[in-house]
Amino acid sequence: MKDLNKYQGIFPAFYACYDEEGAISPARVRDFTEYLIQKGVTGLYVGGSSGECIYQSVAERKLLLENVMAVAKGRIVIIAHVACNNTAESRQLAAHAESLGVDAIAAIPPIYFHLPPYGIAKYWNDISDAAPNTDFVIYNIPQLAGVALTSALLREMLKNPRVIGVKNSSMPIQDIEMWRDEGALVFNGPDEQLLSGLAAGAVGGIGGTYGVMPELYLKIYELVQKGEILRAREIQDACCQVIYKMCSGKGNMYAMIKGILARRGAPDLGGVRAPLTPLQEEDLPIVEETAKNIDALIAKFC
Questions:
Q1: Contact 262/271 with Cβ under 8 angstroms?
Q2: 0.90 exceeded by pTM
Q3: Cα 17 to the chain's mean position, in Å?
Q4: Where are the domains of the chain?
Q5: Does the annotation count 7 as an active-site position?
Q6: How far is the C-alpha of 171 from the C-alpha of 196, rounded, in Å?
């Protein structure tokens, strides 16, 4: 029997870690992995949108995952996003992830060309076949992928015994309820609605801002498990305000996050990869203010 209970909890989406020249930094990957482990997260979601995967080569994505796994060593759950915009490279990453011992692999649908449902199912199943001993998570993010998961497609995918669930980054909470009713585990994707997603039956959350303030999301999850919804809502509202502030700068949100992390005592993760906009001089007051605000919120709630 599969141990699906291990997927309950908070999974920060791992950020890309670059050196001063913009190359993947193994040392920084390892340092950041340990940093998040020490925060008490359930696991990590590696190689997804927050990891800037769309701008990285297959070799770079392998290098990053290898260094995460070298530190994780079974202490936390690792879900590796392996999708590329072609099947062959996606299968390479899937097989590589399985060889490293990840708990699950995940994949968005193919982007740019909009395939019919049977084409998407074949793409996902071909990726899953390359990692025959590893759980598979569908990544539903229609606002970026350009195609949305449907109940019919999910039912087709659940015929594959390796498919355990969905990382659902669509905004409607109803999607979480529908995928859950189909028998899938569902991870809440939009960070702004973690509380609502958990209330709708998500087993946990995978989020792009979890890594910059994991303490607050861990507290939301803990309070929901205790039934303290009003207290959890107070923290969720505070997290939303932080997110809105981080998105108010000229630099890309992940550039802002990396600046904030540096001011919160986290390892230096470098910048972001072009064409993402790097941190701008005018963003620095926002970064400073947000770092202080996060620390104050942690002191208040945690």
A1: no
A2: yes
A3: 15
A4: 9-224
A5: no
A6: 11
Q: How confident is the model at residue 1 (pLDDT cuts 50, 70, 90)?
A: low
Q: Which pair of tokens denotes residue 215?
A: 């303490």
Distances (CA, A) of 43 to 46, 63, 231, 234: 10, 19, 24, 24
**Tokens read off for 129:** 């076949």
Q: Where are the alpha helices (DSSP H) in 40-111?
A: 58-72, 87-100
Q: Choose, from 7, 62, 123, 167, the residue flagged as catalytic.
A: 167
DSSP-assigned beta bridge partners for residue 204: 9, 187
- The predicted structure's pLDDT at residue 114: 87
**Cα–Cα dist 295/175, whole Å:** 33
Cα torsion at 149, 153, 156, 159 (round to 10°)? 10
Is 167 catalytic? The answer is: yes
Q: Which of 261, 283, 279, 270 shows the shortest CA–CA distance to 36? A: 261
The amino acid sitting at 21 is: E
Based on the number of CB atoms within 10 Å of its own CB, is 149 exposed (0-12), middle (13-18) or buried (19 or more)? buried
d(CA 281, CA 168): 35
Which CATH number, 3.30.1490.190, 3.20.20.70, 3.40.50.450, 3.30.360.10, labels domain 9-224?
3.20.20.70
pLDDT tens-digit series, residues 206-245? 999 999 999 999 999 999 999 999 999 999 999 999 999 9
What does the pLDDT average to over 286-298? 98
Question: What does each C-alpha distance from 134 to 10, 48, 73, 102, 179 come to in angstroms?
Answer: 20, 18, 16, 7, 21
The residue written with tokens 């400073």 in the block is 288
**Separation in Å, CA 259 to CA 16, 41, 60, 122, 243:** 13, 21, 23, 40, 14
**104: nearest Cα among 165, 158, 155, 14:** 165
CA atoms of 208 and 48, how far apart (whole Å): 9
- State both tokens at 194: 């973690």
Residue among 7, 15, 139, 221 flagged as catalytic: 139
